[in-house]
């Protein structure tokens, strides 16, 4: 709360929304950063998913991976019209995405899995380069994504439910 207050004071003093894209980008950073921090500081036992999807540190880490990727995609959405989308793309962490995908293989259903797959759809929307299968890293990543999606389809089928494949899976 103190950090947010201090940053808001700096914004009020030095940032003018009408001064151009740099200032608009700067105004978007504080809420994104403080929201991310406040979400991550909630103790595991106080998470809404505790006892249903979060039972220990590994489960909580999965949620942290999801939240981190959600925040990256939110930053892309917010900054895309400011000319600073490149900055967010520069800080994209493919290894964190890979860890989230590995967990999606083990967790095909549930609210966290739903959030993870929503993030995946946005990742492939903003990172078209991931669809370039001539790059070995992208090809390996795609194989894991397809494996995780197949497990999700199977879990839905066992539950007697159908699921629509997202565009990036097709």
Word description of this protein:
It is a single chain. α2 runs antiparallel to α3 and α5 (94-106) runs antiparallel to α6. The model has no long low-confidence stretch (mean pLDDT 89). The protein is 67% helix and 0% strand. The chain is mostly helical and 170 residues long. The protein is built from seven helices and no strands. The chain is globular. The protein has helices at residues 2-14, 21-40, 57-79, 85-90, 94-106, 111-126, 136-158.
In short:
The chain has helices at 2-14, 21-40, 57-79, 85-90, 94-106, 111-126, 136-158.
Topology diagram in text:
Elements (H helix, E strand, L loop, with lengths): L1 H13 L6 H20 L16 H23 L5 H6 L3 H13 L4 H16 L9 H23 L12
Helix pairs in contact: 1-2, 2-3, 3-5, 3-6, 5-6, 5-7
Descriptive key words:
mainly alpha, about 170 residues, 7 helices
H/E series: HHHHHHH
Q: What's the average pLDDT?
A: 89
- Spans where pLDDT lies below 50 across 5 or more residues: none
Number of helices: 7
**Basic shape:** globular
Please report the total strand number as a whole number.
Answer: 0
Structural class of the secondary structure composition? mainly alpha
